Amino acid sequence: MLTTALGQTGLEHLRQRMNDLSNRPAAKPADKDRVKIGWSSAGPIYADEMAERSRISTVRHALQDIADAMG
């Protein structure tokens, strides 16, 4: 499906964008500005940590899909 929609050139461009996103350092707020959104057995869970986990997961899944589409 991705190959049909984007072609090889589009897939390569998307792959590069995802690689750029994965290499971009995540902005971490100052301790006083961090927002606690829950608790775990290891302590507080912060919104910025969840956002970073989501970013990493999105990039990983996108790169897997792109690799599959590129063969």
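Above is the first protein from milestone M3; the second protein from the same milestone is given next.
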Amino acid sequence: MEVYSKNMARYTGAVCKLCRREGQKLFLKGDRCYTGKCAVDRRSYAPGQHGQARNRKPTEYSLQLRAKQTARRYYGLSESQFHRYYEMADRAAGMTGTNLLRYCESRLDNVVYLMGWGSSRAEARQLVNHGHFKVNGNKVDIPSYLLRAGDAVSIKEKSRDSEKIKAVMESNGARPLPAWLERGDSCEGRVLSLPERDQIYVPVEEHLIVEFYSK
């Protein structure tokens, strides 16, 4: 049974269960995901009393649902947020599936995570909420803020002395940076362009998500 906050918008249960449910790592626990303590490595079956039971051949709907849930959980989005991005993607020029993932990738909290300024997307979202970052010189504390090509992102000067942020940056400094982002020094970066599909590493087939919402 999944656990949500009172307004049903935020999942508050054990995030490792989400990875096990989708059968793959969604990197929701930061450094733990890269160790032998990862729940998927230790128990690759789905949680619950029927988790180890033989699985039937998945239906078309099941494959579409799992693709949608995997992408939504990967980015830490509520259903309403994710569906809103789908509607935006469907109206935009180009391939709907690629547009959808591009919107998710260009969120400020996701870019903060990719820059190595957060150990997980959840931690990056929290740091953005607490006002530790600037976009083009202006403080932005909205995790869903969509960045555009050419935008400069930086850690606020006062926040650079934070022991927590220093520790996170030291831990994640060697994380590979996607080609669509540039890191000037350890505290500054830039969006060179919006990502192409082969630069987005979410483990889903986005056409299944489009099919799910198109019904």
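Note on the second protein: The chain is about 40% helix and 5% strand.
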